[in-house]
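Researcher: Re-running this chain for the archive, since the previous output was lost when a drive failed. Same request as before.
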Amino acid sequence: MTTTTAPTPALVPATTGLLAAALDAAGRGWPVFPLAPRSKRPAIPDWQQRATCDPDRIRRWWLRHPLHNIGIACGPAGLLVLDLDAAHGLIPIHWARRGITHGRDVLTLLAQQAGEPDPVDTFTVATPRGGEHRYFARPSGSRLRSTVGARGRGLGWHLDTRGPGALVAAPGSLAVVHGVPVPYAITWDIPVAVLPGWLVCALTPPPAPPPTAHPPPPPLPATSRRVSAYVHAAVTAECRNVATATEGHRHITVYAAAAALGELHGNGWISAAAITHHLTVAARNHLGVADFDARELTTTIRDGIAAGQENPRILTDRPAPRLQLAIR
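Model: Regenerated C-alpha coordinates:
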Protein backbone atom coordinates (compact mmCIF):
# COMPACT_ATOMS: atom_id res chain seq x y z
CA MET A 1 0.00 0.00 0.00
CA THR A 2 1.29 3.44 -0.88
CA THR A 3 1.29 5.68 2.17
CA THR A 4 1.44 9.42 2.45
CA THR A 5 4.23 10.56 4.73
CA ALA A 6 5.45 13.96 5.75
CA PRO A 7 8.44 15.20 3.77
CA THR A 8 11.58 14.35 5.68
CA PRO A 9 14.68 15.65 3.93
CA ALA A 10 16.74 14.59 6.94
CA LEU A 11 16.26 13.66 10.54
CA VAL A 12 16.42 16.78 12.67
CA PRO A 13 18.48 16.22 15.82
CA ALA A 14 16.14 16.93 18.71
CA THR A 15 18.74 18.61 20.94
CA THR A 16 22.21 17.94 22.28
CA GLY A 17 22.08 15.90 25.46
CA LEU A 18 19.18 14.63 27.53
CA LEU A 19 18.98 17.72 29.74
CA ALA A 20 18.76 19.95 26.68
CA ALA A 21 16.13 17.63 25.20
CA ALA A 22 14.06 17.83 28.39
CA LEU A 23 14.27 21.62 28.38
CA ASP A 24 13.31 21.69 24.71
CA ALA A 25 10.16 19.62 25.33
CA ALA A 26 9.21 21.74 28.33
CA GLY A 27 9.76 24.86 26.24
CA ARG A 28 7.08 23.58 23.88
CA GLY A 29 4.66 23.50 26.83
CA TRP A 30 4.85 19.76 27.53
CA PRO A 31 5.39 18.80 31.20
CA VAL A 32 8.27 16.32 31.47
CA PHE A 33 9.63 13.89 34.04
CA PRO A 34 12.52 11.39 34.15
CA LEU A 35 12.32 7.90 32.71
CA ALA A 36 14.79 5.13 33.50
CA PRO A 37 17.87 5.20 31.24
CA ARG A 38 17.25 3.76 27.75
CA SER A 39 13.68 3.00 28.84
CA LYS A 40 10.05 4.16 28.72
CA ARG A 41 9.56 3.25 32.39
CA PRO A 42 8.91 6.17 34.79
CA ALA A 43 11.80 6.71 37.19
CA ILE A 44 9.64 8.51 39.78
CA PRO A 45 6.28 7.79 41.44
CA ASP A 46 3.26 10.04 40.78
CA TRP A 47 4.82 11.10 37.50
CA GLN A 48 1.63 12.66 36.12
CA GLN A 49 1.38 15.01 39.09
CA ARG A 50 5.12 15.74 39.23
CA ALA A 51 5.72 16.33 35.53
CA THR A 52 6.79 19.93 35.04
CA CYS A 53 7.80 22.68 32.63
CA ASP A 54 9.85 24.45 35.34
CA PRO A 55 13.41 24.69 33.94
CA ASP A 56 14.97 24.84 37.42
CA ARG A 57 13.36 21.56 38.51
CA ILE A 58 14.26 19.97 35.17
CA ARG A 59 17.91 21.00 35.56
CA ARG A 60 18.01 19.59 39.09
CA TRP A 61 16.54 16.26 37.92
CA TRP A 62 18.89 15.76 34.96
CA LEU A 63 22.01 17.14 36.62
CA ARG A 64 21.54 14.44 39.28
CA HIS A 65 20.56 11.77 36.74
CA PRO A 66 22.08 12.76 33.38
CA LEU A 67 21.37 9.40 31.70
CA HIS A 68 17.62 9.36 32.35
CA ASN A 69 15.31 9.46 29.36
CA ILE A 70 12.58 12.09 29.14
CA GLY A 71 8.90 11.34 29.52
CA ILE A 72 6.08 13.64 28.42
CA ALA A 73 2.87 13.37 30.47
CA CYS A 74 0.25 13.46 27.69
CA GLY A 75 -2.64 14.39 29.97
CA PRO A 76 -1.17 17.58 31.47
CA ALA A 77 0.38 18.40 28.08
CA GLY A 78 -3.03 18.40 26.39
CA LEU A 79 -1.74 15.90 23.83
CA LEU A 80 -3.18 12.93 21.99
CA VAL A 81 -0.25 11.14 20.35
CA LEU A 82 -0.82 8.59 17.60
CA ASP A 83 1.73 5.81 18.11
CA LEU A 84 2.22 4.14 14.72
CA ASP A 85 4.33 0.98 14.94
CA ALA A 86 6.15 -0.96 12.25
CA ALA A 87 5.37 -4.64 11.83
CA HIS A 88 8.09 -6.92 13.16
CA GLY A 89 7.42 -10.49 12.18
CA LEU A 90 4.43 -12.14 10.50
CA ILE A 91 1.76 -9.75 9.19
CA PRO A 92 -1.88 -10.92 9.51
CA ILE A 93 -3.14 -12.09 6.13
CA HIS A 94 -6.05 -9.62 5.90
CA TRP A 95 -3.57 -6.73 6.32
CA ALA A 96 -0.90 -8.24 4.08
CA ARG A 97 -3.41 -8.57 1.22
CA ARG A 98 -3.89 -4.79 1.36
CA GLY A 99 -0.16 -4.12 1.40
CA ILE A 100 -0.29 -2.83 4.98
CA THR A 101 2.94 -3.26 6.93
CA HIS A 102 2.85 -0.32 9.36
CA GLY A 103 0.48 1.51 11.67
CA ARG A 104 0.66 4.56 9.43
CA ASP A 105 -0.76 2.41 6.59
CA VAL A 106 -3.72 1.60 8.81
CA LEU A 107 -4.21 5.31 9.55
CA THR A 108 -4.08 6.13 5.84
CA LEU A 109 -6.72 3.47 5.16
CA LEU A 110 -8.97 4.78 7.93
CA ALA A 111 -8.68 8.31 6.53
CA GLN A 112 -9.61 7.07 3.06
CA GLN A 113 -12.63 5.23 4.44
CA ALA A 114 -13.72 8.39 6.28
CA GLY A 115 -13.24 10.50 3.16
CA GLU A 116 -10.66 12.61 4.98
CA PRO A 117 -7.02 13.51 4.26
CA ASP A 118 -4.27 11.52 5.92
CA PRO A 119 -3.37 13.53 9.07
CA VAL A 120 0.35 14.03 8.43
CA ASP A 121 0.75 17.77 8.92
CA THR A 122 1.72 17.89 12.57
CA PHE A 123 4.78 17.57 14.83
CA THR A 124 6.20 14.09 14.20
CA VAL A 125 8.91 11.97 15.82
CA ALA A 126 10.59 8.82 14.48
CA THR A 127 10.85 6.12 17.16
CA PRO A 128 13.97 3.92 17.44
CA ARG A 129 12.33 0.73 16.12
CA GLY A 130 10.87 2.18 12.94
CA GLY A 131 7.67 3.61 14.39
CA GLU A 132 6.29 7.11 14.40
CA HIS A 133 4.70 9.44 16.93
CA ARG A 134 2.31 12.05 15.54
CA TYR A 135 1.45 14.70 18.11
CA PHE A 136 -2.03 16.28 18.20
CA ALA A 137 -3.73 18.71 20.54
CA ARG A 138 -6.80 17.31 22.28
CA PRO A 139 -9.88 19.46 21.54
CA SER A 140 -11.30 21.27 24.56
CA GLY A 141 -13.99 19.24 26.33
CA SER A 142 -13.13 15.97 24.57
CA ARG A 143 -13.29 12.65 26.46
CA LEU A 144 -10.39 10.94 24.73
CA ARG A 145 -8.38 8.22 26.39
CA SER A 146 -5.46 5.97 25.51
CA THR A 147 -6.13 2.93 23.32
CA VAL A 148 -4.19 -0.16 22.27
CA GLY A 149 -4.58 -1.52 18.76
CA ALA A 150 -8.15 -2.34 17.78
CA ARG A 151 -9.33 -3.20 21.31
CA GLY A 152 -12.29 -1.29 22.70
CA ARG A 153 -12.39 2.14 21.08
CA GLY A 154 -9.01 1.50 19.45
CA LEU A 155 -8.35 2.53 15.86
CA GLY A 156 -6.61 -0.55 14.48
CA TRP A 157 -3.61 -2.82 14.16
CA HIS A 158 -0.31 -1.25 15.27
CA LEU A 159 -2.10 2.07 15.84
CA ASP A 160 -2.15 3.05 19.51
CA THR A 161 -3.08 6.36 21.09
CA ARG A 162 -1.47 8.07 24.06
CA GLY A 163 -3.68 10.51 25.96
CA PRO A 164 -4.61 11.24 29.59
CA GLY A 165 -2.94 8.73 31.90
CA ALA A 166 -0.28 7.84 29.33
CA LEU A 167 3.22 9.00 28.43
CA VAL A 168 5.50 9.16 25.42
CA ALA A 169 9.27 9.26 25.35
CA ALA A 170 10.29 12.76 24.27
CA PRO A 171 12.58 13.49 21.31
CA GLY A 172 16.18 13.02 22.37
CA SER A 173 15.41 9.98 24.52
CA LEU A 174 17.32 6.82 23.62
CA ALA A 175 16.48 3.14 23.19
CA VAL A 176 18.89 0.28 22.59
CA VAL A 177 18.24 -1.49 19.29
CA HIS A 178 20.49 -4.46 18.48
CA GLY A 179 22.95 -3.21 21.06
CA VAL A 180 23.12 0.31 19.66
CA PRO A 181 21.53 3.39 21.30
CA VAL A 182 19.07 4.98 18.86
CA PRO A 183 17.32 8.31 19.55
CA TYR A 184 13.73 9.40 19.24
CA ALA A 185 14.29 11.97 16.48
CA ILE A 186 12.11 14.80 15.22
CA THR A 187 11.22 14.29 11.55
CA TRP A 188 8.64 17.04 11.05
CA ASP A 189 9.19 20.05 13.30
CA ILE A 190 6.00 22.03 12.75
CA PRO A 191 3.30 23.20 15.19
CA VAL A 192 1.11 20.53 16.77
CA ALA A 193 -2.19 20.27 14.90
CA VAL A 194 -5.57 19.86 16.57
CA LEU A 195 -6.79 16.27 16.33
CA PRO A 196 -9.08 16.00 13.29
CA GLY A 197 -12.80 15.73 14.04
CA TRP A 198 -13.21 12.31 12.44
CA LEU A 199 -10.56 10.89 14.78
CA VAL A 200 -12.18 12.61 17.76
CA CYS A 201 -15.48 10.90 16.88
CA ALA A 202 -13.78 7.52 16.40
CA LEU A 203 -12.04 7.73 19.78
CA THR A 204 -14.86 9.24 21.86
CA PRO A 205 -16.51 6.62 24.12
CA PRO A 206 -20.29 6.32 24.14
CA PRO A 207 -22.15 8.08 26.97
CA ALA A 208 -22.55 6.15 30.20
CA PRO A 209 -26.00 4.62 30.69
CA PRO A 210 -28.25 6.56 33.09
CA PRO A 211 -28.55 5.21 36.63
CA THR A 212 -32.26 4.55 36.09
CA ALA A 213 -31.34 1.82 33.59
CA HIS A 214 -30.78 -0.55 36.53
CA PRO A 215 -33.65 -1.93 38.62
CA PRO A 216 -33.62 -1.08 42.33
CA PRO A 217 -31.97 -3.71 44.51
CA PRO A 218 -34.09 -6.01 46.64
CA PRO A 219 -34.30 -5.13 50.33
CA LEU A 220 -31.56 -6.39 52.60
CA PRO A 221 -32.36 -9.59 54.46
CA ALA A 222 -33.80 -9.03 57.92
CA THR A 223 -31.00 -9.02 60.45
CA SER A 224 -29.78 -7.22 63.52
CA ARG A 225 -29.37 -3.45 63.64
CA ARG A 226 -25.64 -3.86 64.13
CA VAL A 227 -25.27 -6.02 61.02
CA SER A 228 -27.45 -3.68 58.95
CA ALA A 229 -25.27 -0.73 59.90
CA TYR A 230 -22.13 -2.73 59.11
CA VAL A 231 -23.43 -3.75 55.68
CA HIS A 232 -24.51 -0.21 54.85
CA ALA A 233 -21.07 1.16 55.77
CA ALA A 234 -19.31 -1.55 53.74
CA VAL A 235 -21.45 -0.91 50.65
CA THR A 236 -20.88 2.85 50.90
CA ALA A 237 -17.10 2.45 51.25
CA GLU A 238 -16.73 -0.04 48.38
CA CYS A 239 -18.92 2.02 46.04
CA ARG A 240 -16.76 5.06 46.80
CA ASN A 241 -13.63 3.06 45.98
CA VAL A 242 -15.10 1.98 42.65
CA ALA A 243 -16.39 5.44 41.71
CA THR A 244 -12.99 7.05 42.34
CA ALA A 245 -10.81 4.29 40.82
CA THR A 246 -8.16 5.59 38.44
CA GLU A 247 -7.55 4.35 34.92
CA GLY A 248 -5.41 1.25 35.01
CA HIS A 249 -6.75 0.23 38.44
CA ARG A 250 -10.48 -0.06 37.72
CA HIS A 251 -10.60 -3.82 37.11
CA ILE A 252 -8.81 -4.76 40.32
CA THR A 253 -10.76 -2.16 42.32
CA VAL A 254 -14.13 -3.48 41.11
CA TYR A 255 -13.02 -7.07 41.76
CA ALA A 256 -11.78 -6.25 45.27
CA ALA A 257 -15.03 -4.40 46.07
CA ALA A 258 -17.18 -7.28 44.82
CA ALA A 259 -15.09 -9.80 46.75
CA ALA A 260 -15.36 -7.77 49.97
CA LEU A 261 -19.14 -7.49 49.65
CA GLY A 262 -19.27 -11.13 48.54
CA GLU A 263 -18.03 -12.04 52.03
CA LEU A 264 -21.19 -10.41 53.40
CA HIS A 265 -23.27 -12.26 50.82
CA GLY A 266 -21.75 -15.50 52.12
CA ASN A 267 -23.44 -14.79 55.45
CA GLY A 268 -26.78 -13.96 53.85
CA TRP A 269 -26.47 -10.30 54.89
CA ILE A 270 -26.85 -8.90 51.35
CA SER A 271 -27.99 -10.41 48.07
CA ALA A 272 -25.79 -10.82 45.00
CA ALA A 273 -28.33 -8.74 43.04
CA ALA A 274 -27.96 -5.85 45.49
CA ILE A 275 -24.15 -5.99 45.28
CA THR A 276 -24.29 -6.02 41.48
CA HIS A 277 -26.68 -3.07 41.43
CA HIS A 278 -24.69 -0.86 43.80
CA LEU A 279 -21.31 -1.52 42.14
CA THR A 280 -22.73 -1.11 38.62
CA VAL A 281 -24.16 2.30 39.52
CA ALA A 282 -20.86 3.28 41.19
CA ALA A 283 -18.91 2.31 38.04
CA ARG A 284 -21.21 3.95 35.48
CA ASN A 285 -18.81 6.83 34.74
CA HIS A 286 -16.05 4.35 33.83
CA LEU A 287 -18.07 2.57 31.14
CA GLY A 288 -16.83 3.17 27.62
CA VAL A 289 -13.58 4.74 28.78
CA ALA A 290 -10.31 3.12 27.65
CA ASP A 291 -11.77 -0.29 26.78
CA PHE A 292 -13.74 -0.68 30.04
CA ASP A 293 -17.19 -1.89 28.96
CA ALA A 294 -20.37 -3.27 30.57
CA ARG A 295 -19.42 -6.86 29.84
CA GLU A 296 -16.11 -6.58 31.68
CA LEU A 297 -17.83 -4.81 34.57
CA THR A 298 -20.53 -7.47 34.94
CA THR A 299 -18.05 -10.34 34.69
CA THR A 300 -15.67 -8.76 37.21
CA ILE A 301 -18.44 -8.18 39.75
CA ARG A 302 -19.71 -11.75 39.33
CA ASP A 303 -16.24 -13.24 39.78
CA GLY A 304 -15.55 -11.07 42.82
CA ILE A 305 -18.79 -12.05 44.54
CA ALA A 306 -18.10 -15.74 43.86
CA ALA A 307 -14.64 -15.46 45.41
CA GLY A 308 -15.81 -13.48 48.43
CA GLN A 309 -18.72 -15.69 49.38
CA GLU A 310 -16.31 -18.58 49.91
CA ASN A 311 -14.99 -16.70 52.95
CA PRO A 312 -18.00 -15.33 54.86
CA ARG A 313 -17.24 -12.27 56.96
CA ILE A 314 -17.17 -12.82 60.73
CA LEU A 315 -18.18 -10.09 63.11
CA THR A 316 -16.55 -10.66 66.44
CA ASP A 317 -18.57 -9.82 69.51
CA ARG A 318 -17.58 -6.71 71.34
CA PRO A 319 -15.42 -7.66 74.33
CA ALA A 320 -17.29 -7.56 77.60
CA PRO A 321 -16.01 -4.99 80.10
CA ARG A 322 -13.53 -6.45 82.53
CA LEU A 323 -14.44 -6.47 86.20
CA GLN A 324 -11.97 -4.50 88.25
CA LEU A 325 -11.13 -6.16 91.55
CA ALA A 326 -10.68 -3.80 94.42
CA ILE A 327 -7.18 -3.88 95.90
CA ARG A 328 -7.38 -4.42 99.58
